[in-house]
Design a protein that fits this description.
With 408 residues, the chain is α+β, with helices and mostly antiparallel strands. 15% of the residues lie in helices and 38% in strands. A hairpin with a 2-residue loop joins strand 10 and strand 11.
Length: 408
Amino acid sequence: MEIECFLWIGHLWKEVMSIFPGLNGHNVKALPGEIIFEILSRLPADEVVKCRRVSKEWRALVPTPYFSQYHLTRASPIVLIHSILPQELSSYDGKLEFYFLDLGAKKNQMVKKYFTKPSFPVRKYFYRMFFSCNGLIVFETKYWRANYPNFSIYNPITQQDITLKKPFGTGFLCGIYFHTLTREYRLIYTYKTCNANCWHYVILAGGEWVKLQNDSFAPPLRNGPVNINGFVYWMIWKKLINYKAAFPLLCSASIITFDTETEEIRVMAHPGKRCHSCCDEQRDMQLFNVENRLVYARVYSELIKIWVLKDSTKWLWAERYNINLDLTVKKFIPRQGLRCRLRNLIYIPDGQLVIFWENVGLFLYHLELKTFRKLDVKIRGYDLMSSVGAYYSLMSYTKSFEFWSKNV
């Protein structure tokens, strides 16, 4: 069979040579640079990294800012998983491993490991993945059993990393964004003042922390911000709010918006009905990105309501989806005594939503067909989606060549 294949390939090659006689004398002209640019911009970032070995021209093209930004506009988001097994939590050895979830692959090949570079100094630190923006992953990094963490920014595709110290020990990182005027990435950080409900905001610009004029009564929610069309959105964190002293009421001021151009902050209301108890219900709210639109999800015991932001200027929302958590999902709920809470809602292309339900599993929901599918995901032989005591984090991630500004 192998010999027949080789004979067939040889015959096909002769036919091609007869159609294109110019190829016989190796007079093959190089493809125009514009076509090479278009081809490379359509490939996944990790595949483009391999293509850099072809020639010096290709190697010089990939790291250019124009190609990096153009490639980013065409890249599709995927699901990124960071996990630490229970035995590693007890004596952390610093392994920093990422896994990409390929929903189009076969059942036993859906999880693909992506190795970190050997020189990444992980053995002294504990890493907790916060969020990502344009291919940059932001971690909270600290010495094992230490109290004052720093931040690390890492691109697993380019294998570049940088560690930044907190400007104030009692603050929180709100988000990261690209500043179009200075062509650099900037961080948003907030820290508490003596006022019980007042938080100051600073940004890291040009290597220095600069205080903003705006203050807010609330720090960010721990599930990360959402970057859309020049704005950064995040929700408040209920644990750090004095609810009796909160003004305005939390329902009318539960979403914080940051304009990356003017670098101003506004506090806005979440859509839907007013909460009976914001302290208890706020953990069941989440923001995420769907086709470059801000989406708000409210999780109930048997239903997930989803609103889409129609007009960011007028702050107009429209209720779009209702996801019924029917018996198809409920039959996977484990024995009593385990906490079962929806942790993440991650949108991926083709109208699908990845739902991560703690101690229950990982599900794929089609927004238009309204169908559920359970994903059996195992990492290193463990079913981490229902593994008790493990640390795991899932987020939407876009492969890119972006990196933090070198002037930090």
